[in-house]
Fold these 2 entries.
Entry 1:
Amino acid sequence: MNTPNQTHFGFEQIDEADKAARVAGVFDSVFPRYDLMNDLMSGGLHRLWKAFAIARSGVREGARVLDVAGGTGDLARAFARRVGKNGQVWLTDINNAMLTYGRDRLVNKGCLLPVAQCDAERLPFPDACFDCVTVSFGLRNMTHKDQALGEMFRVLRPGGRLLALEFSRVWKPLAPLYDFYAFKIIPRVGQLIASDEASYRYLAESIHVHPDQETLAAMLRQAGFENVDYFNLTLGVVALHRGFKY
Ligand code: SAM
């Protein structure tokens, strides 16, 4: 009998087939406090990281943008302002709770966007139909990152670009302090604010096992992207990877 392929869920080794459900459990639990926790855990820095990604996107009026794993819609909303009436921004996510929360949040702000619940590993869009694809803090939760990157490449039109914002490998001298914060403080704040220590421990662990800057850049190239580069933000706490389809 074949043993099922293994993958990591934080520091745990699990069957690949179980990962999506475990990740869904995390976001089903955290969605009501997701935005508040983002601000608390990052001290508001996630807003600057996202603003940096938008500034590097090259997205102009009339562009078509796909936000993969878009969650509560921060990037989608900012892009909607940029593309104007002649453009289009899709907010997508695999998780119904996150997506519904995000959609309602945007509607309350007067921002109506097309929304699709879908797995990044099987995007329900035709080839070559977007000018820009973004994935922000979503990639590390995906089981087959290579497949998801391949799908993002497929739906981009020639000349289009991918922006992947994700936690990465922090500057080494800062690592002990960062690990203390990630493993000791964040789960406690998660317990205090969201009554969910386990999900926030997963967050810290999933950051630790996510590919570093160079490895992720190589994965983008492997998926077909060219002119791949990355920007370290806040000493590598986060990195923005950029790749082009020609
Ligand atoms: N992009 C948002 C942001 O930057 O605030 C949300 C990021 S949140 C940390 C990660 C999101 O990835 C969750 O909403 C989760 O449901 C989504 N996700 C995880 N696996 C996914 C997959 N295979 N396909 C699409 N979305 C996925």
Entry 2:
Amino acid sequence: MSITENSPCKIYIVDDDEQQANLMQAMTKTIQLETKIYTSSIEFLKVAVTEHDIVILDLQMPEKDGIEIMRELASCHKKPNFILVSGFDERVLHSAKQLAESKQLNVVSTLSKPFKAKVFIALIKATHEKCLENYLKQQNNPAIDEDNQNSPTIEELKLALRKHQLIVYFQPQVSFNTSALQIAEVLVRWQHPEKGILLPDTFIPLAEKHELMNLLTEEILMLAIKEYKKIIAGGLDIQISINLSAQNVSDLSMPEKLEGLLKHYDIDPKSITLEITESALMNKVSDSLDILNRLRMKGFSLSIDDFGTGYSSLVKLYQAPFTELKIDRQFVLRSVIDPDSKAIIKLCILLANELKMKTVAEGVESKEIWDQLQSMGCDHAQGNYIAMPMPTDEFILWVKNQ
Ligand code: G
Ligand code: G
Ligand code: MN
């Protein structure tokens, strides 16, 4: 049996044990998914796999083992979605997964042999749906393609700042308990005259590299304040959260500047949460603590963003006066298919509760994820299941329709 040649998300089974491979193929067949089997790892390495494909990979194989396969694929920038299978114990699978992730390879899940058909089928089904969805998303929005040859230059970005081409969207965060809207995150977009709406991933790293983040953040703050004023004028009583980058938390005068700006527009810092990524705290620790403490004293709430993806220690989390912990979407998205992600979320919530911090899950994309995180005691949800990021007018309408 071969997979449909034109399927955008192909499924490969790479296992030297023919019987085991046939069994897995028969299981996926029950949900109408075709697969292609490779019992030779060397043969498999010749395949042009894409980032949308799924590779069910046995770790233990004679010619080249699973770890070698992942290394070779990573070295030629082939990054499919792996499901690792092994007869070894869980720890081996777990560390193989860590290794893969250190090479920026995506391991969707791991399975110890023998596994239950039901578990395997559910995993393949969920993974296939997710891959297909990502493929469609990329088709509809080529700007998120990392290899996009069309990526903007720093000169274009500087011009965009001068011509005020940046805009802000709002994405609601609601309470898991009451579904009530609490706060909206401000997310920047670039309304490019030719390329359309560009996402921050295409220009924030560029701005960071060229030390343009302070200028960019000033512009975003101005936009956020103006739009927030419109939201308040629209009769809504909500708060907003704004993202800061590492370069913003190294300027010692930033808390005073920000306070002055808000005073000018008659906005109470208590209505504003500042989101700072874990990796931003890696810089000069004493400076960032100085800045964060003064921001907190002025009344701002502070959120640690993308928690779990950086390298910050528990000590740092304890030292900095954060009021909120945002669980990174990579864990949230996988919480319903990957027990390790679920375990990490559990720990994040426990830790946040101990430190009297609020928890926010980002990437709540489905009812399944909502139910999962709700049952785990997370406080607030943000994600496409609730609403996508929206321009101000659309956001106000959305709130009024709730
Ligand atoms: O929608 P989303 O693609 O908006 O955002 C992608 C990433 O870009 C997020 O992780 C977010 O933290 C970051 N980002 C979005 N808006 C801003 C912003 O205004 N400032 C900074 N520093 N980062 C932002
Ligand atoms: O700054 P931060 O990483 O918190 O920004 C949130 C990011 O998550 C934005 O890029 C936003 O577009 C994205 N996002 C929000 N909801 C969802 C979701 O349900 N699924 C996915 N994949 N991304 C989401
Ligand atoms: Mn954020």
